[in-house]
Structures are given as C-alpha cells and as structure tokens.
Amino acid sequence: MDLRTFLGDLEQAGELMRIRKPVDPRYISPLIEKAGKGVYFEQIVGYDMPVTSGLLGTMDRLAIGMHMDKREIGRCLAQAVNSPIPAVTVDKAPCQEVVHIGEDVDLTRLPLPLHSLQDGAPYISSALVIGMDPEYGRNAGFYRMMYNGPRHLGIGLVSPSDLRLYYQRALEKKEPVPIAVAIGSHPSYMVAVTYKAPLGHDEMAIAGGLRRQPVEMVHCKTIEAEAPADSEIVLECEILPTGFTVDEGRFGEFTRFIGGHKMNPLVEVKAITHRKDAIFQSIHMPWENIILDAPVYEAIAWNILETAGIQATAINISTGGCGQFHVVAAIKKRGGEGKNALLALLSAASFKYAVVVDDDINVYDPDHVEWAIFSRVQPDRDVIIISDARAKPLDPSLLPVKPPALPLTSKMGIDATIPEYASKEQYETITYPFMDEVDLKDYLD
Amino acid sequence: MSDKEVNRVEKQIVQLATSRPVFYSDILHELKGEDYRTIMLAFGQIRTKKLFDRDKQGRYVVKSSS
Question: A188 near A203, Cβ under 8 Å?
Fold first, then answer.
C-alpha cells in the first residue's frame, strides 16, 4: 500500500480529479481549493513531474485510503499505538531508482507549490521527516519545510517536539541531525507519524500496527537514516547546527490562520532520490492537516479515557475544532464519570473544549449534541472552567506572552450526561405508536 | 535556464523589494512572465546572499546595507 494504491482507490471511488491540461505551478493551490476532490495534475509547466494534492481533504477520502469506516480510524490508531509492528529494512527500494547526490542536488527540479498568499516561499507541506538520535533512535513526524535555495530548506521547529529535542541535543555538541524527508506516502504512514508517540517510540512501528504489516525502510545513501522504501521522493538531509538563526514562514497553518515568520534552523539537502516516474505529493493546507489530526486526537482521547477507567463508546474530533481543539465523547456512564471523563480529557494539551455525553447521543451529529447540552446540562453544576493550563501556541485568542514564557489557556468542559439526580421519566423521549405496524408506501398512490 | 537569466530575474526581484515590501506571492504576481523555476533559483540566490530582511508582516524588504 503506497501513494499509488491510494490514488487508485480514490479514482475508483470517483474522488480523484485528473487535470490533463498544463498547469502553471502558481495555480496549483487555488485549483485544489476549487476542485473539492483530490487532484492529480498530469502536466506542470516547466516540470517533468506530476503533482497530486488535496487527497485527504475529507474524512471520507481518508477512510477510502485506510480501508476502514471513518469513525473507526481513531480507535484503530489507538490499538496500533498499543500493538506496534517494528519496521524492517530492505536493500532495494523504489524510492532510490534515481539518485542525485551533492552538486547534482537541486530542489527547484521539484514542483514545490506556493500554498497561501502570505507564505514565505514555496513549501514542502507533505514532509514526513524521519530523524535519528544516537540515544532515542528514530522519530518520525510531519514538519513544514520552506524552500530556501536549491540545496537548502527551512524547517519549523519552534513548537515542542521530539525532533526539536534531537536538534537541541545535537546543537549542544555542534553536530547536525540527519533526517530523511519522505514525500509521497500512503495515508497510513501519515496518520501514524501525525501521532506524537512518546520519546523512544517509533512512529513507523505504529504505522506497521495500523497496516498490520511491517513498514519496509531503506537506508539512505548519504546519511545515517532510513526512509519508507515505497516513498515517491526522499530528501536526504542534515539539520545544520546553526541554531535558530534563519527566518522561516509565514505559513498557512492548520488553524486556518497565517502563522508568523519565525527563526528556525537551516536544513542542507545531501541527496535527492526518487522513483523513475515520481509523483510529487503536496498537503493542501489547512484541510488535509486537519483531517490527519482528527483521528490522531481521537486515538489520544480513546487512550486517555481507557486509562481513566471510563468506557467510551464513540469519540468525535470535529473539523471546526481544527482536528484537535474540541472533543465530544460518548460514554457508558457510572455515577460521577461525566466529570471524571472531562477532567481526563482536558488534561491533554490540545483539548480546549470537551463535551461528554451519554452513549445514546450521536457524537457525529452537532444537533444531537446540542440537544443533549440543552436538556442535560445545568451550567452552574455541569460546566468546568480551568484557567492557566498549557496552551497550543497557535490559538490566536491566547493572551500574548514574552518568550521564553509559554502561553497559557483556559479550558472548558461540559458534562452533558443525564444528571445522577434525574428520574427516568424526566428523560423519556417521544415514541410514536404502531410504528412497526404501519408502512407509508401502503398509503401512497 | 542559464545563470544569466537567473541573475536577471534576481535583479528584478531585488528592484521590486526595493520599491515596496513584498510577499513571495507578490514576486510571482509581478513577474508573471517569468518561469516559476527561474524565480525559485533567483530567490534562492537572494537568500544565500542574505539580501532580504522581513518587515513586521513577514514581507521581504531589501536590507539597508545591500
């Protein structure tokens, strides 16, 4: 299962638009936004490489790629986190059919699109970055990478991450961090690496757990790192020990806002390897990022509630909450567990709003959730507000702070479960008589 | 494309950023007749030479010493 399998699945489902006419790279981003489907650009003017983007623009399309119900992806990821399958190393790989090393490296041969009006430069938004640390081993995650010259990229390392930690450790020794940057991947890899596994845990093994087979990795030609063998393109790079000295950004973020420009490290590209007929994949911001985040944060919520001893039956992370700020969880409640569930969920850094409902409420139907909030909540008893918790820095409503202080957030939880004091009669809903006996079509002409 | 062509576009970009602060999209817009890849190469040269600063909005401006 690779990017090509996914493209085939989308095409079969009528969810892929092929654009055969030549397209100026300037128009890649607006055309994807207008397409409302995954897009495959067969001809990009000035390039001999097709571009595909917008593939993960909806949960339905992600579900097609994952071969599972969209509501099950988060739960399956939670299981994969607990049952990883270690990756294996292979000798030959499609992603190394063509090799450019050293002076032959030229990022301008890749059709990097400009995503948003205020972006600092063209970006690689689909960079699956696999870093190595001598002690902690492999770490994989998604990082944005800004074009900075034919052999140089900027990388967004301002937010806390394992790769940032690797970089800081290497920086103390004035050493570079080797990273393999894989472009063009199956969604199972993307979902797995979006999950921020604890330090020392290999996201590629989580990808294996999700696919129920080990991911095949191949050694890079020029650096001590490995990349998924079935990638379309691999950039073999080093994050240079320059410190946070190079301006990077702005960039249209998953929050749907344009992030500011920041000082970040510089990345040097040592080699570019790719398939003979490589396809350049781009993640269309913010939608594909949000869609990738949602199941990841659902998985986090499943694991949190399981750890708290609460039986969840359904969890929905909405796209309105940008795939990570709002969580709605249905539970089989025992006394007091509405509040316990809220406390547990709000302990996760990302969740700013949590709503807990009973298992008769459809968490995927905002109208049904709202009905539960109306009918089961007394705000003075059932709404929890917590001040000064750790915040996601990209929330524009946060009070500004001066670095190195980290921004703080308040959080709100709504316990929309039937109150313990309520009688059963109070919550009897309307049921129509004789529903099983009558068929509407018997009364139509 | 030739070095000469890239250098010519580099000059055009610097001229543009001298006249007003620009986003990369402004460069692409103003140099619509130029090849996308040539603009990337020219922009790369400018970045290597560190000719640009940023204003508060993140737009490129030519460094005062340039």
Answer: no
pLDDT at B66: 55
- 8 Å CB contact of A120 and B24: yes
Tell me the residues of chain B between 40 and 59 that have a Cβ less than 8 Å away from chain A: 40-41, 43-45, 47-48, 54, 57-58
Q: What is the CA radius of gyration of chain B?
A: 11
CA nearest neighbour of A336 among A363, A314, A308 = A308
The interface pTM score, or ipTM, of the predicted complex is 0.97
Shortest CA gap A81–chain B (Å) = 39
Q: Using one digit for the tens of pLDDT, what is the confidence trace for A193-235?
A: 999 888 888 999 999 999 999 999 999 999 999 999 999 999 9
Q: Name A323's bridge partners.
A: none
Helix axes A203-211, A187-194, angle to 10 degrees: 130
Q: Which residue of A has its CA nearest to B28?
A: A26
pTM for this entry: 0.94
Low-confidence residues of chain A: pLDDT under 50: none
Q: Is A308-427 a CATH 3.40.1670.10 domain?
A: yes
Contact flag B58-A148 (C-beta cutoff 8 Å): no
B52: nearest CA in chain A?
A: A247
Which of B24, B35, B47 is facing A114, going by the closest CB pair?
A: B24
Domain ranges of chain A: 82-283, 308-427
Contact list, B37 vs chain A (CB under 8 Å): 46-47, 108-109
What is the three-class DSSP state of A345?
helix
Q: What is the pLDDT of residues B2-61, one digit of tens each?
A: 999 999 999 999 999 999 999 999 999 999 999 999 999 999 999 999 999 999 999 999
> Does domain A82-283 correspond to CATH entry 2.30.110.10?
yes
